[in-house]
Design brief:
The chain is α+β, with helices and mostly antiparallel strands. The chain is 32% helix and 34% strand.
Length: 175
């Protein structure tokens, strides 16, 4: 990426960050890519509890309004795409760890060791990751890379307990 492009992306982020914060959204990434005679401006947003389609629609309207009132995109036409933070993005900030609590994560430390475990408690400097039933404190400063692992058909403990609580009477009453 050129220095000019990085500067433009930084300016865009600076202009939209505060208005998006009023919607409880954080700017996770701003990318500009050429697409023929146009440019595509992609803005990834996130928030505690996850981003809904309504959040994306509201963010799109807000960003469009902010950019139309600004000269940051210049006179060149562009297409705006607002998305949620993808699961493939690395965990780089404390809020990323917090928002992914109870998810499986593969962690590579600066010393080259790696492990996979479930994110437990988090704060501004570290997270607890359960690895094979043992809690491990991980300082964010020691993390080289951390990626959420996709799990299919994972049942939470509460879901299993609900199934186990069904009695024979409940089953007979449903028949």
């Amino acid at each position: 990426m050129s220095a000019k492009q990085a500067e433009i992306q930084g300016r865009i982020e600076a202009e939209i960050a505060d208005p998006l914060r009023e919607l409880a959204l954080d700017v996770e990434a701003v990318e500009i890519t050429p697409a023929g005679k146009r440019r595509v401006l992609r803005v990834a947003v996130d928030k505690d509890g996850g981003v809904t389609l309504d959040d994306v629609a509201e963010a799109t309207r807000l960003i469009d309004t902010v950019l139309e009132a600004s000269d940051v995109m210049g006179e060149h036409p562009y297409t705006l795409e607002v998305t949620s933070r993808g699961v493939d993005r690395p965990l780089t900030l404390p809020r990323h760890w917090r928002r992914n609590a109870d998810r499986l994560v593969k962690v590579t430390l600066a010393d080259g060791t790696d492990f996979t475990g479930r994110i437990g408690s988090t704060d501004e400097t570290r997270a607890t990751v359960e690895v094979s039933g043992v809690d491990r404190e991980v300082a964010y400063a020691d993390v080289e890379k951390a990626l959420v692992q996709i799990e299919f058909n994972r049942r939470k403990t509460a879901d299993v307990a609900d199934v186990d609580d069904i009695t024979d009477e409940d089953e007979e009453g449903d028949a």
